[in-house]
Amino acid sequence: MKKSKHEYEKHDEVALDFSKLKSFFSNKLALIFLAMLIVIFVLYIRLQPLSLNITDDWAKSSVHNFYRNTLADAINQQYPNLPSANKDALIDKNLEAFLKENQQQVQTDIQQTAASYKSRLQYVRNGETQTFLGDLDSYYYLRQAKNFVTTGDTCDERRDGVCYDSYIVAPIGASAVMLLHPYAIGIMYHIVSFLSVDADQDVLLMRSSFLVPVVLAVLSALLAFLIAKKASNTLGGILAAVLVTVSPIVISRTSGSDTDTWNIFFPLLVVWLFFEALSTPHLKKKIVLLVLSGLSVGFFSFAWGGWWYIFDFLIVATLAYLVYKLFIFITERKQIKHALKDKRITDSLLMLVVFFVAAGIFVTLFTGFSNFTTFFVGPLGFKSLDIATHADLWPNIFTTVAELNPANIPSVVGQSGGTLFFFLALMGGTYWFMKRFSFSLKDSLVLVFIVLVNIILLSSFGLQLQSMTFFVILTIPIIITVLLYGKTLEDSELKFSLLLLIWFLGTMYASLSGVRFILLLAPIVGISAGIFLATLYVKVKDALSSFMNLKGWLVSVLLLVVIALLLLQPVKAGYQTSKSFVPSISSGWVNSLQIIEENSQSNAIINSWWDFGHWFKYWADRRVTLDGVTQNSPQAQWLGRMIQTSSEHEAIGIMRMLDCGSNTAFDEVNKKYQDTELSIRLLNKLIVATAEEAEIILADEGFNAAATQKVLSYTHCNPPENYFITSSDMIGKASVWAHFGLWSFERAYLVNNIKEKTLQEATVIMKERYGYDEETAKRTYFEVQGLTSDPETNAWISPWPGYITSTKNCIDANTSVICTYNAGLGSNGQQQVVLEALNFSLSQGKSANESVQLLLGAYQNGIKVGGSVMIPSTIYFNTEGYGELQELNLPSGTFAYAVVLAKVDDGYVSVIADKALATSLFTKLYYLDGAYTEHFEKFHEESTVFGDRIVVWKVNWDVNWNETAE
User: Fold this and answer.
1) Torsion of Cα atoms, 367 then 373 then 379 then 384, to 10°
2) Which residue range is the domain that position 166 belongs to?
3) Helix, strand and coil percent figures for the chain, each rounded to 5
4) Are residues 784 and 725 both part of a single domain?
């Protein structure tokens, strides 16, 4: 029976619907499959630090070096006169043979050594093992998360409803900013604990803290995929996801549970939702997406104070689009009032208003209206990062925070993807032009122009341009292409292109202010490069298939192989970065801090330089004067002074003041003077005085009895237990803590108060305030006027002293002490200058120049070709092992640094440093092992897996400090 026409039509409709359904599911399944591949790839990269595989490489190198050195010793004894090159060749040959003959033993040694390394980088409790978290700040949030899962609140306590951290700014505590990260760790903890039966809480918290950035990295990769896919195609999405995932700066900054993971995730989420709103023609869907984007901004503000940057970029991009559209109206001689009837303009205005209002509401709900207002003033804050001194004369500690150091354009390009991928990202700024590229003469000329501009920008010439010039040139390709092809663009393409440009410019500007902000640039580089490569792939594929008559599948395979080869280097770099990421903390630190916890009173305070404050609070469960949250405060100057001063009496006075009330003594004194420098002058007298002497000093300064007792309660109380920590890292940081310790409030005052004055006005100030004579005032005035940058100002206010070298390799030769350094001092042409030794004569009757000599050697290609003798300008020595270090100044000395030679126990120790550090408290404690001090008793000493030395000192308050104010 024949089917009717109606039946055939019905059959066709069913077939068509089935085909659509099949296509729908096949596309969805393909996307799900790709998403799973991305997730697996991200997890593989991001979980590398957990396994500590890098320790296998360390172990192999360590074991091989051990056997090599053993063989070298034997060969040196057997062939002492053999030339070095021949010796090395023989050693290598013997080592190769040994390793081959003893494979099993060597492999066992490597495995045991690797296990030892791993064990010192892992936390073990109740049979559970967890790799330590990677960085410093992780432990700040981990402690808050522990509060959250234990008490339901991240705060240590609430004072009048305000969240307080009781462990910072000891002993008074300080208000704490509530952030999203501890809550995320807490939520992850509940998920992980549900899957882990009878596991230890501390281990699970650390595990949860490690997993939060891993999950966010997965989500960030998927968002990068969706954004790039929307702008180009599926290949673009995959490339963007890969490039964002393997970015070394992203991996190094977001592994270990710091909050930087949110600074990748939320901007991508906000942009994706906004981009989807751009693309949809449905009004209700557009509004919902914009509200969700605004909600994401609100959550971002709860995660990081710099939330406003992506909000500002989207607002500026939309405004730039509106300005362009109005420009088109004007050039086409249309009346401006007609612009409000243009749907593209009204839609953009609607998006602007909805997004702005939604973000404003949610930011206000989560973090307060005052925080929302920072979207306007926030960009101006970058300039305050590198100012030398605050208006109140206290130093700006942020100038010495490594991650806030300014960057230059070459370093920004290098760290955000490298020259090649940065070039591809710049090309991605005009991705829509490549989509429409037709091989016409006009298109070809424009493409050549774009390529040349970007090549010039990334050439050695372009990378040395002033930042503003660089930024202007960077915008030229986009401006030219918009002017030439703008009318052919879809609105979403133009707006996204403007967003790419503003994202580039904004994050590059931020990166130049602080290297930590290069992280913000990495996602846009990955997305933009992925979009361009995917667009280029389509164009080249079509061109080769058409012009060369090649089969499409063959062209696709060849092009994908080329792209894979391009990705090989960044993927390898990302993998290696992740594999090499190890915790900063190790069992040596944890053991030292837990010993403090077990043997100290609950109100004890730990002091050191501020960097490891978060570790101290978490692992020792004790309060600290400073940490990574509070480092930019006056206490940093006091701590620096305490560590740098050569007077133990002054150091103990400062420590007592800090432990009695932090910087409250200054606040109380300054209520009277309202002058930072005058208040500091008085405090410097009080801290070294007895309580009775201090009371007299305050009375002489006009303080009444009540005010006097209040000040004394913060300077001369009965202080709690104090543990002071010296560690190897403080050697490299000496120029920093000593810089702040030597901070001249007098010079800071002059910088702030005479810079804008005339010579006559400034001279009056200096004479009246400091008693300068005419010549000194004039010289000082012109010195201040000559300061043209914040670094110069910083150096003028206070020096940056440091340590040169130290040694315990000293030989007592009865009539002299000889200390061997073999420390490089730099180069003189092609020769390396090496400080070889100190010869200090113990014989009587010799001149000073004969008694103290530094032996220098000149080396070329490892061979000594000359030598000389230098006399230090100052030497501090003690050959008895008790009493004080004696100072000997040598007028004929030509060596700028001071030499320390001190008897410690049964041997001698020598240190060479700037004079300001030679007899500092740190020198006496760390280098001289506490000799020549009275208040510091060695409590514990340990070394880390990295070979760093940690020494914990317990402060003995009773020595010579019997008089205190109750």
Assistant:
1) -80
2) 138-208
3) 65, 15, 25
4) no
